[in-house]
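Weekly modeling sync, notes
Attendees: AB, CL, MP (scribe)

Item 1: holo prediction request
CL wants a bound-state model with zinc ion before deciding which constructs to order. AB pointed out that an apo prediction alone won't tell us much about the pocket. Agreed to run with the ligand included and paste results into these notes for async review.

Input as submitted:
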Amino acid sequence: MAMDDNQPSEAMKFELLKVAAKPEAAARLGRLLLPGRQPVSTPNFFAMTSRGSVPHVTPDNVSKHLNIGGSYMALEDFIERSQAYAKREPPIYQTPSSSTPSSGRPPLHSFTATPPTTLTILAPRRIPAVPSPMGNTNSSISVYTSTGFQPLSTSEYRSAIQTLQPDIAIPMADLTNAQINPTSKRALRMAERTDEWIKEWFLLTKPTSSTATFAPVLPIAYSMQWEYLERLSEDYTPSSPGHPSPRGNNAVAGLAVYDPDIIPDLVNDYSNLSLLPRLSLSAPSTPHQVLRQISLGVDLFVLPFTNTVSDSGVALAFTFPPPSDTQGILPLGVDMSDQKYQTDLGPLMDGCTCYACSRHHRAYVHHLLSAREMLGWTLLQIHNHAVLTSFFEGIRQSLQNGEEEFEKGVDRFSMVYDSEFPVGSGERPRARGYHFKSAGGDEKRNKPAWSKFGNNDDSEGVSVSSSQPVTDTPPPVPDPMADGVDLEHQGLGKVVR
Ligand SMILES: [Zn+2]
């Protein structure tokens, strides 16, 4: 069917299936519907990706074994510029443009090989984002790529969204990403800049865009950002979302909430914003925090702890509602590197029906982790995502049965389970892009794979990478600007006279 350029494209829909009768913020049941993607029942979670893929799991296995509705991606993962070729366009922007939204495979899906039924969420930065030593400016933020920090301008980000056509985009927000709260002066500027950027965003977004916008809600006090929120509500949000609007996708379709504690204020003051799906970008660190945020009315999550727990060799082991016949505090996960699982033929978690648990046993995963075989982390990722999928299924079921049953489950969950994940004792996989670097002065995460022969003293720290031969003097590096005479002096290759 040919698309009329002037017709607003079929916009994302969010149906609220069950909301508590009370007026304050509360847990709710809903369904997110995007043309061409599988419906996402909420509360639910999206997978956290690194450079567009779920760590350790190939796209075909994501389709087969991970029941995830969406993938969160960060543009900073894709746009590094090498110093030698600063003008080179990042490959992601060169994805063939023949893939149209109607084919179900927009460029971002094609480039990252994301299954067609899975929806994509694109944001400027990862969660949690590495704080930048350079501040943001009035028209750009500082992002962390694999070649270091670089500015990302509002216009470059917008054009990336236009080119890549994610299903959901999160506009740029002026965030500090620091542990400490910003001063009130800084907080006000955060709100002002984000406000300016959102005006620019909607000014330049077409109703025919195939991308839904989840507007950022800043991690600052409500009193600091109410003007910005009022603009979102009055100017850019349809009064009754879900009905066809002349704005099409040039409207707020959801909220990306960086601190869910602000939700009660939103519920009080903006009835139309309350009908939108809320995605928490606050990176809750335990299932207890996830449950608390659901009680506040969060619908969707991105959970970076899933990947870090798998990397540490831990298999998640919790359910919702929690088991009723328990004694003592149960751990949230099992450290599969522990020697005691060497001969354990049980599944990673009793009762789990995931691929890893139905085909393999603890002893095998323990062996893989000891041998540092990648399959170990792959099986853990499949299992840990499955545990989360059933955790959210259990939450939705209990909400279906009534608010009271859910609240009872939450109380019991906090009594039955430990408050933190066990610390895995195994060696982590080699650090990659998604294991972001922390502040300067930290020890190197990866041990050198090999060093100078006969040098037993590791502390010498000979930095050797696999691409460099081991010699005392570095090999001459050819200068790309060198001419024939220079090369002769540098002695690159043999000059035949
Ligand atoms: Zn399992």
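Recorded for review: The CA atoms of residues 467 and 475 lie 12 Å apart.
Action items: CL to compare against the apo run; MP to circulate these notes.
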